Every structure is written in structure tokens, then in C-alpha cells.
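Blinded run. Sample ID left blank on purpose so nobody reads anything into the name before looking at the predicted structure. Input follows.
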Amino acid sequence: MRVHVFCRLACLALCLAAVAAGAEPAAPGAEQATSLDQLLDQVRSANERESVENQRRVEEFRRDRAQQEELLAKAKATLAAEEARSEEIKVVYDENEKRIPELTAKLKDREGTLGEMFGVVRQIAGDTRGQLASSLISSQFPGREAFLEELSESRTNPVMEQIEQLWFVLQQEMTEQGKVVRYPATVVSVQGGEAQAQVTRVGPFNAVSGGKYLQYVEETGKLGVLARQPESRHIETVAPLESATTVTGFAIDPARGSILSKLIEAPSFEERIEQGGSVGYVIIVLGIFGVALALYRLAYLSIVGRRIRGQLSSSTANLASPLGRILAVYEQHRRADTETLELKLDEAIMKEIAPLERGESMIKVLSVLTPLLGLLGTVVGMIQTFQAITLFGTGDPKMMASGISTALVTTVLGLVAAIPLTLFHSVVSSSSASLVQILEEQSAGMMAEHAEAATPGPELRRVAAG
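Blinded prediction complete.
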């Protein structure tokens, strides 16, 4: 029984030893236990080492605690000192708060009228900064706005140097406004590229370079080429100005570039035509066709008129002339009776009237149709405008601009096409009517001559009666 209990204890000791060996590495040089006595010695040695280590840790904890208590005491002392200093500062702050109104009133009394003058100086600096920010002269003298901004936003009274510098900036702006100068500057092209170029500035009004007008871009502080240049008659004055050494003519913008900047927003002639839409294109095509037809008819009637007037001075029938062809019919049926000849001449005149009056009805129809198409475009444009109002309201006028442009442009196109067509129709009708009148008059004369030749004279009638 004792042997069995001893075996159990031995197994338990071996398990504890194995656990201790797995939890903590064996000490260097330690040997593997081969018996229970050795195992017991090793366990005892491990316990002693752990006791020593635990004692060392306790000592460290005690030292650290002392240090923490010392640091805590110092922090409390610092806090108490800062609180005391805060109370002192609060007292000083309260005293200063009480003295500020007194000192401010005293300062105003001592400043007198200087305070108002300094206020005016700051106001002038602010106003001048706004003017120089958009001034064309700033492209030649950049960086002037920084000083003015600092002066206008300063809360202290300006010193004499600042006042003198403000006077210099004002004098410089006034002097440069009366000059035409050339200077190098950075010019931004329409595509966005930058390049150094020689710029010619005419006061604060306009600047040109390379034969083109420039505009001053306030955001970048640089000159840029206008995307859309003025009319050719204004562009033609740029090159003489750039090379001039004496007085020369030049077209300027009195609004200091505002009018030129609006050219970018103003639509060109092609864009105006596009605003008319499909109805506008139809009006243009019909108008061009009607004018071309009227010009063709006028040319034809002019040629025919010359031939008819040439035939009037000749007794020989010219078949290239309507009057000559009628004369040929008269000569062919000269021996026929009066009624037959009259019918033949009427038939010949009817054949000649048709070519002379051809196209008049078409011109008249086009002169009436084009304004009606313009009215149709007006109605279509107003429908688009009301649709835009329904969808987006009336807050943004640009949303309605497309429909209004369509309405107005088609109306203009219709009237532009109808007015010349009406005039051409009147001219063509009067020209053809005058030629027809000549033919009818000459035919009537031929009939009268034939009737006189066919009627016996008075002497022949008396002989027949005798």
C-alpha cells in the first residue's frame, strides 16, 4: 500500500517538473533529473530563484511608487502656482478692460480730426484697390493691390510713408491713363498658351499685340487675346498703331474693355442663322431661290426688251425678237381678211406673252410665303419659350433665350426675304407688262394699217356708184 502511494507521489512530482520545464526554460547548465531526489533539488532551487526575483520586483515597485509620489507632489505644486498666476492675470485683465474705454476716449480726443483723415485714407485705399484690380494699367505695373489691401484693412493709423505711397499709386494711375506706351508682357492665347509679347497700351482703354485686341483678366493678372475680334475696320487700325511714331487713328473702347469683352457673348452671323432652326433655313433657301429667279427674269426681260426696241427701228422681221415673230405672222397673212389677220395676230401675241410673264406668279407666291414661314417660326419659338418656363420657371432668363431667339430670327428672316421679293415682283411685272403693251400696240397698228389698205378710198366708191 505504501509502495502504491509512493508511486503516485513520484508521478505527481514528475508531472509538476514537466509543467515547470514547459513554463520556464531550464537554467543554463541544469541537468535532466533522473531521480526523485534530483527532481526535488531542482524544484527547491527554482523556488529560491523565484523568491529572489519576486523580492527584486517588489523593491522596484516600491522605488517607482516613491518616484510617482514625488512627481505628483511637484505637479500639485505647479498647479497651485499656475492657479495663483491665473488669478493675478485675471486681476490685471479686469483692470485693463476697465482702462480700455478710458484710453480709447483719450486717444480719440488726442487724434481729433486726424482720426477722420485716417478713415478717409483707408477708404480711398479700398476704393483704389478695386479700381486697380480691373485696370489695364496693372498689366504693366503688377502687385500694386497688395499694399492697398493691407492699408485698407489695417486697424492702426497709417504712417507717413504709407500715405506717401498711396499718393504715388494714385498719381501713377492718373499719369499712365494719358499715355500710349509699349512694354513686354505675358499674353495668353485663345488656346491657353502663354508667351512674352510686345504690348501696346492706349491709356486705360485698350491694349493690342500682334494685330489683335487684348483684354485684361483680373483673376490671373495677365492679358489675353479676345476670342472674337471686332470688325475688320477696327482691326485695320491695330497694325498702324503698333508701328506708329506719330499721331495715328485707332479705335478704342470708351468703356475700358467692357464692350470688347461682350463680343465673346454676342453671337456671330452664322450663329444667328443657326438660332432660326429648320424654319429659318427653309426661309433662306426660298428667299435665295426667289431672288435668283427674279434676277434671271429681269435679265431675260432686259434682253428681250432690247430686241423689241431694235425691231421697232427695222422693217425686216427678226425671228429672235417677239415683235419680229409677230411681224412675220403679219407678213405671212398680209393678204387675208381683217378678221382672220386679227385672230392670227392675237394668237401670236398670246404665244409671246406666256414667256414674258413666266415666273411672276412664283415670285409673288414666295413673297407671300416667306413672311408666313417667319410667323410659323415665331410660333414655334414661343412654344419653346413657354416649355422652358414650365420646366425651369422664370428665374433664369437664359433658359428662355433659345426660344425667343428662334422666334425673332425667323421673323427677321421672313421679312428680309419678303421685302426684296415683293420689290422684284413689282419690277418684273412692270417690265413684262411694258413689253406686252408694246407688242399689243404694234399689233393694233398693223391691224389698222391692214384695215386702211383693205378699205376703198372715196374716189373709188364714187366710180363704183356711177
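Unblinding after everyone has recorded impressions. DSSP finds 15 helices and five strands in the chain.
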